[in-house]
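Researcher: Checking consistency across runs. Here is tRNA uridine(34) hydroxylase again:
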Amino acid sequence: MTIVVAALYKFVKLQDFAQKQYPLLSLCQAHNVKGTILLAPEGINGTVAGSRQAIDSVLLFLRSDSRLADLEHKESYADDPPFDRMKVRLKKEIVTIGLPGVDPNQQVGTYVNPKDWNALILDPQVTVIDTRNDYEVSIGTFKKAQNPQTESFGEFPEYIRNHLDPNKHKKVALFCTGGIRCEKASSFMLSQGFQEVYHLKGGILKYLEEVPESESFWDGECFVFDQRIAVRHGLEPGSYDMCPSCGHPISEGDKSSSKYQEGVSCPSCFDTLSEDKKARQQEKKRQLDLARKLNQ
């Protein structure tokens, strides 16, 4: 059975967000849907996976709330379950930037459809910025894009303040995995005096889904936050594994490094892992290997 993976988000005022937690969790569990959904006063964000009927039921439930009636989602597919459990979490923000005044419900940049993205970033007057974290950028990005080299999205405002000037950078184009970080990023940049801020509607995932590879300006694979690790054009599964200690993607080249220990460490975290953490990961791997031998 093909598993449907649905990514969704919407910035909308949800003052009763906490009251939605348990009904939503119960519905997902009843339909054997797994993944994570975040609820906050500013909206909803999540990725869930399940059967076609199950995902349709969850989307119907969410859209039955008039505030979420126009909730958009993006779909991809997987042969194996990309999540182990279902979580519905309450948060202060559905994507954390740490600046209470930044509100996409109040102001946001100009959306650009995937079919129009190439023309925009070809414009020599446009500064293209990847709003994702450094480990995500490392496995794929758009040609010409700047990498802020952030470890978390909360560092993005500082990068903009230090490296961009509203008087010099007249046109800025932002992109991220599914579009949600760009909503916050564009809202922040507008508050800082930038006049023309564009962002890729639906994010990289929508671009890889709609733009033919022969016409694509994307280079590499796109990191995703589930057990697929990465996807390619057409949202086909990628070639990376994930380090269980630090969460960074692991390439075949990384596996040839002396700092790579399967199930324990990778070149990104080997030098910073404590001996205690390494020992715990080694024990966890031993138990997993034993379980596989017992076919559990």
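Researcher: Does this match what you'd expect to see?
Model: One thing to look at in this run: The chain has three domains: 3-90, 110-220, 240-295.
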